[in-house]
Design a protein that fits this description.
Length: about 270
């Protein structure tokens, strides 16, 4: 009897173990799947006009960004074998790629893709009717480039028009004015990176550098961004940059890293400090 009881107990234990593993397996299978980009942000259709110079749409886990750009100036000048226009487009495409969410951006472990389509015209030729194109102006010589709108007054619906608060009436709202370097001539790689950074402004993101960004929950001691953010001086496009773009796109508000003189307002995508 004692032996039988022991066997029974062992069997029960085994059954219990089996049961727990089945339960664990079920729990894993039943755990809610990470939401798709489309479930989180919608398709973006209600924010998009077909004449806009920057258009975006989401399908499943793919975000597609359409860029309508008009190259002007010395865009055919070559640098390390590529024209300035080619390097600029290479820079725009740095926003494309595969991204993984983390605890601060999107959902942890969530994977999604960004595609960038570039519709480029030159000196205004072959423009699609009723389509806005922002200027990319290639200038010879050294100088500080800029994006042609006043910080905080970014308005996606005005990009590629001559309306809104702009520095230079010769160029469109959101024009990227690009010189060949600030102190020294850019290398091809620098030209690409600066173009990607300036596109970030056209997409509605502020500058990361020189902001004295305090330590944030998202960015303790500045480490996370310091490892690379295209809106800083030397960086790459991060999930946070994509999150800021989506916020800019949906709210039509410029996304700054810190609160500054109004209307420059800290992005909701920059977590609390
Ligand atoms: Zn900048």
């Amino acid at each position: 009897m004692k032996k039988m009881l022991k066997t029974l107990l062992t069997l029960c234990a085994a059954a219990f173990l089996a049961l727990t593993s089945i339960t664990a397996a079920n729990a894993a299978a039943a755990a809610p799947a990470a939401p798709t980009l489309q479930q989180m942000y919608g398709t973006l259709a209600k924010h998009t006009r077909l004449c806009d110079a920057i258009q975006a749409r989401i399908s499943g886990n793919t975000l597609t960004i359409d860029v309508y750009v008009n190259f002007r100036g010395s865009y055919n000048r070559k640098l390390e074998g590529a024209t300035h226009a080619e390097l600029a487009k290479r820079g725009f495409r740095l926003w494309a790629g595969s991204y993984t969410g983390n605890r601060w951006d999107f959902e942890p472990g969530m994977k999604f893709n960004v595609k960038v389509n570039i519709y480029d015209i030159y000196n205004g030729n072959d423009r699609k009717p009723a389509q806005n194109y922002f200027d990319f102006v290639c200038l010879k010589g050294k100088g500080r480039g800029y994006t042609n709108f006043y910080v905080g007054y970014w308005d996606r619906t005005l990009l590629g028009t001559k309306r809104g608060f702009i520095y230079n009436k010769n160029y469109t709202n959101g024009a990227i004015i690009m010189y060949e370097g600030l102190n020294n001539r850019y290398t091809a790689n620098q030209y690409v990176k600066v173009s990607a950074h300036e596109l970030g402004h056209v997409l509605g993101l502020g500058d990361r550098y020189n902001k004295g960004l305090p330590s944030t929950q998202e960015c303790p001691r500045g480490k996370y961004y310091a490892q690379g953010d295209i809106m800083d001086s030397h960086g790459r496009v991060t999930p946070n940059n994509i999150e800021m773009f989506l916020e800019a796109y949906r709210t039509n508000r410029y996304q700054a890293y810190v609160n500054s003189h109004l209307p420059e307002v800290k992005s909701r995508a920059i977590r609390s400090y």
